[in-house]
Specification:
The protein is an alpha+beta fold. It is built from 2 helices and 11 strands; from the N terminus they run αβββββββββαββ. The protein folds into 2 domains: about 1-35; about 35-149, Ribbon (Umud Fragment, subunit A). It has a 7-stranded antiparallel beta sheet with strand order 1-2-11-3-4-9-10. It has a 4-stranded antiparallel beta sheet with strand order 7-6-5-8, with no helix packed on it.
Length: about 150
């Protein structure tokens, strides 16, 4: 019985050691803590590579939320009758299937030009959750991480 307990403890220490090394080893850029892993998702703290379709984590109202980028700095964004327009072109590639419903009172039909530090985000799932239609564009300084899958 004593041998089994010792083996379990040794295996646990080996597992914890490998896990620690994996989290603190340099990323491909040579920086520590450039990429971390949380809940089977990876996230990077470098927002310079953000583009359409990226999932980001950001601070909003004291919470950390995850949404999908559909508008980049300088873009003109319009959501009208459930259709997303970026710079005047229909852009439904990253839009949830159900973007709006008849009872949705958020900022529909309002065109917005994003500033150099702003991103337009939409809800990841059914389009009914809070997103840029509710709270406006997301400032770059609010972005915590780009979520890598």
């Amino acid at each position: 019985m004593k041998k089994i307990i010792i083996i379990v403890i040794v295996l646990l220490l080996i597992f914890l050691g490998f896990n620690y090394l994996r989290k603190t080893s340099p990323s491909s850029t040579g920086n520590l803590d450039q990429t971390t892993s949380t809940n089977n998702q990876q996230k990077t703290t470098d927002p310079s590579s953000l583009t359409y379709g990226d999932k980001i984590m950001f601070n909003y109202g004291g919470s950390t939320v995850t949404k999908r980028i559909v508008g980049l700095p300088g873009d003109t964004v319009l959501v009208s009758f459930g259709t997303l327009y970026i710079n005047g072109k229909n852009s439904d590639r990253y839009v949830p299937e159900i973007l709006v419903d008849e009872n949705d009172t958020r900022a529909e039909h309002q065109s917005i030009v994003l500033k150099s530090d702003e991103y337009y985000v939409l809800d990841l799932f059914n389009g009914k959750g809070p997103d840029s239609r509710t709270y406006g564009p997301v400032k770059k300084t609010s972005i915590i991480a780009k979520v890598l899958e």
